[in-house]
Amino acid sequence: MRPTGTTPGSDTASTRAGTGRRRLPWAMIGLWIVVLAVSAVFAGKLDGVKHDDAVDYLPASAQSTQVAKIQKDMSGGSATDMVLVYDRAGGLTAADRAAADRQTAALEKAYPLAGAKPAAVASKDGRTLIVPVSVAESAGKPEDVVKAVRDRLAADRPAGLTIDVGGPGAAQGDAKEVFASIDGTLLMSTAGIVALLLILTYRSPFLWLVPLAVVGVAAGTAMALVYGMVRVFGLTVSDMSSSVMTVLIFGAGTDYALLLISRYRDELRRVPEPYEAMRAALRGVGPAVLTSAATVVAGLLCLLAADLNSSRGLGPVGAIGIVCSLAAMTTLLPAVLVLLGRRVFWPLIPAHGSESRAGRGVYRRIGAFVVRRPVAVLAASAVAVGALALGIGNLPGALHQDDTFTSTPESVTADHILHRAFPERSTQAIVIAVPTARADAAQVAVSSTRGVAGAAAGRSGGGWTEISAYPAAAPDTAAEKDTIKRLRVVTAPDHGLVGGASAQRIDTADTSSRDSRLVIPLVLAAVFLLLAALLRSLVAPLLLTAAMVGVWAAALGIGGLIFGPVLGFHGIDPGLPLLSFVFLVALGVDYGIFLMHRMREEARAGAGPRRSTVAALESTGGVIASAGIVLAATFTVLASLPLVMMVEMGLVIALGVLLDTFVVRTFLVPAATTLLGERVWYPGSPGPATPTPQEGTPAPAAVGAA
User: Fold this and answer.
1) Residues 6 or more apart from 694 whose CB is under 8 A from it?
2) Residue 643 and residue 239: Cα distance in Å, rounded?
3) How far apart are CA 270 and CA 38, in angstroms?
4) Rounded to the nearest 10 degrees, what angle do helices 362-372 and 669-676 cross at?
5) Which residues are paired to 86 by β-bridges?
6) Tens digits of residue pLDDT in 401-433
7) 3-state SS string over 305-369?
8) What b-and-e string marks burial along 512-538, b requiring 16 or more CB atoms within 10 Å of the CB?
9) What is the pTM of this model?
10) Arithmetic mean of pLDDT, 62-73
């Protein structure tokens, strides 16, 4: 006899639904196993297609970039320009000079040279001797050539004589050596920090392994996809963009996992079946997580409008990382959690019918305080953010070549000796490329230019000729910059192009400034439109974007207070303002999305402005705090790298995320929404009140419920 209330075929339909629920997670895991197997074949090949040549970082349209490309096409290709520096405190001996001659002759035989024949130049005090050497590209990678040259010199060094290898080629080789050790260190450090924070967050011996493993799958998939983009579309990937992608995947992926797992745990208390609980959790966090990922991707893709190659190349690489994180966290992670069931939360298993502890902690009290004194809270928060932003005026100037590393590699030591030994002129050439037919006239014009101590013609090829000009001023000084500007004016009639290491830094700084003026408005527009689409409001998106601009300014201001006075940095990378803006606005606005989306859900359910603010803050406060700490910690890993550029970017973004998490999202935004009331949803409204669900029907989910 069929039970009352059933219809023919209902048992069969129920059985089929149950079978589908069991099969879908397994099918999803099987699909990701295939993806992982394919990715494993190609992910390891990414290192082999990375490029860290000068043109991969320089402005695409700048004269210095064009000179670098012309040199690459000449006989021998791009040169590894080095300066052999011989120094003895008591003055050079005859044996020292003989060793320099012997070693220079050996290098001429061992390597194909580019440019003029190496000629020794002695300092006036007789203590230092330098030999400029340009090794052709055909000799090998800069880092390999520099290392081999240093080994040769060390093997034949008279006692008491200091021999260092400096110059642009040596600096590039030192940077490449540093980057070569970054990937493994960065990956292990990031994974270790994320694992520790997940253990502290979940207080479970098992649960932390699940999101960490899924993040690892996303990272491997992203590396494989980036490798494919290199092969198919010629995408340029540098060690810097690859490192940032790794941090993005771990940071953003873990944030998505925290939000999903937090909501899933809450749904398990309400729904008996893990499958249905996960469906409800995905419905709840889905719109916010999708919009969050979309804002990051949109912000990164805005970098494609930049003229600086290093910034433009970072855009698609980072976007691929975010897309892979989103895909893994919304498909693979739910499948694994459903199959593991409630026991994955052991020992704090969320029992069906138990009450959530959300709302009983500090964020409920903070919310109540904010809505009682919104004017005072808003004023105090705004003043704090504004005061920190004043530190921008204390930021150091542009980063010089000698200040690139946090430690002192040999190339920097050599440059310091050069500055001391030759204060009357630079030992770093300005390279001018002119059409060969105009080379003689151009050389005369260059030699007679004010600020030029000497000039000599070098290689010719492809219709172009090199002219090396040595300025009287030291590198990275205002006088040298003026000389470069004069040379560009003087050589313009002969269609000359002025490049070299110093010109590259000038062009990079100028282009970074132009890129900021173009890309920053694009990022703001993209983020605003995405927020308006999600929140169906113009006021709320304006509030969130304005708050993030304030956070960015305050984070740079904190940098101004610690970079020079505390860390001893003598400059900032020209790309720091733009890249930190993109990451802080695109990533930081995520937390605004989670908070405002929950406020909107509460308002739709009939709660007033004050009540919806308190409910949203108490529900999302804990998970946003955890996500912010994880994201800040992952970017802090960059500060452990021996490059000033990476340290500065990691610290600014980490400090900005923490400021956003614990000041802006906790106090400033809730206070502002309390004062705005219903006007925060202008020109629309939160929408119709959510109907009470029928028994057995999952209730509409709210983002970030803890």
Assistant:
1) none
2) 12
3) 39
4) 40
5) 129, 163
6) 777 778 788 888 888 888 888 876 666 789 999
7) HCCEHHHHHHHHHHHHHHHHHHHHHHHHHHHHHHHHHHHHHCCCCCCCCCCCCCCCCHHHHHHHH
8) beebbeebbebbbebbbebbbebbbbb
9) 0.80
10) 87
